[in-house]
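Q: Predict the assembly, please.
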Amino acid sequence: MSDHTFLPAWREQSLGRRVFLRVSAASAASVALIAAGCSTTTVTPTPADPYQLALPTGDPGLLYFAYMMALAQTTLYQKVMDAPPTDLTAAERAVFVDLRDHKVVHQQTIRYLIDPTGINQLLPTDFAFSLSKFTLTTRAGVLAAAQQLADLAAAAYPVLLTLFTTSSIPQRTLLLKMSSVQARHAAAVRDLLTPGSFANSDVVDSAGQLLTKTPTEVIAALAPYFAPYVISVAGLAVPV
Amino acid sequence: MNFFNIIDLLAEADPDVLDRFSSRRAVFNSLGTVAQRTALATSPLFLGALFQKAYAGTASLPTDILNYALTLELLEADFYRQFLAAGQIPAGADFNAITVIKNHEDVHVAYLRTAIIAAGGTPVSGTATTGIRFNPSLLPATYADQLKYAQVLEDTGVRAYKGRAAELIGTDLLTPVLQIHSIEARHAAHIRTMRGQQPWVSLGDDLATDARFQAAYTSGVASSTKTAIALGGTTYGIPAYNPAQPSPAESNQQQGAAGTKLAVLITTGIGSTTYLADDAAAAFDEPLQAAEVLDSSRAGGLLA
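A: Predicted assembly structure:
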């Protein structure tokens, strides 16, 4: 079903969970039957859907979620570096170099937390964050795309950080340290696209607090860009 | 009210709770006659006192943490009040941005005040002339120099919230505190951009080598080892400064928790690629302990 292996660090955990579980169509069908009243105990096996990806449950799933947000941003920023729009100024390109470098560090740090050996394949080899829906040939298009992704990740962190179940893990501390850098990124990109919009009312509520997004909301927003893969966050903790 | 049920529930949340009480029966038996125990155990005051004793010196109450946050928000709000009143801010984008930030600090103050009162605490207070406020004699004459204080206050605010977040794990206060933390980071990024600095804390920051401001980006204390902070009409507790483990400086490039996992040098330790020192440092904002923030070398030195 899956060509991904168990990571040793995770296998030691109580559930012995798979690094990145592909949900089979069969299990989805059985859930539907149970929901319908458990009318049968036999399920006709169907071929596994190779494009269904379920994030692991618990804290590892949260790390995967953070990893995917970082992946989305590094993919965009690298593309802007590789093919910058002609109207993106030199100063703005310098900002994008920093954005890319910081996010690559974030992505690789999260990857390290998931897999300290660095040798395991975390995602299917053809998994990618698609940029085809963005307009990356103009400065305005690049900044709009960057603002969307940076704001989305910034909005995710205040929720994400509350969902970890282990209290003293380095993961939470590291993500906390990244979260304010993510907020700085969002503010900087917003200021490039719309000067002075670093903390506009579309991202801040009347109590001066950032408007947040749950993992479910974030993955829904990113879903068009992960197609044909479909990400399930059903295993993640939910905010109470 | 079943006293032992409460202890058992607590033990689920905090496996060490019984150690704190030596043993539950020993504590209970030390309280006198059966009649006295019954009367005491049904009293919320008794429970409060017992738990306060059991947890003394280990953790601040949520109201203590909120009062600490309120101290910094009051300091910021009063700074921006003086900053605007000084009349040096250019009209237009600059004035508008400072006004937006000032308004956020004001509503942060209001939110924290309300939360502290709701939790049964007494909020610290400050006005233009009393209590917690920015020392007016420190306000520089020029706009450029005034902005330096804004940057330091915002960057310090980010570090301060980060330093206390772990203590709020498991409470309803963690999310709003992280939401405010995130807004402080946005403020900091904008102020830095206004100053022609990188939006993120960088090794090449001008203030990192400015004797008046550089402490905001380092760690350790010059003076403060207090655990009871008497400010703004009330007193709140902060954790004792731990000299063995000062917070990382902002230039830190090594991440990972000691004890559970070896610290990793970000420049070379996360995969096959190497990263620049500036990126390794700037990609992570570092926390400060409360005693470090309230030290005379940092926010504590800006109070009137």
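Residues 58-225 of chain A form a domain with the Ferritin fold (CATH 1.20.1260.10). Confidence is low (pLDDT under 50) at residues 1-43 of chain A.
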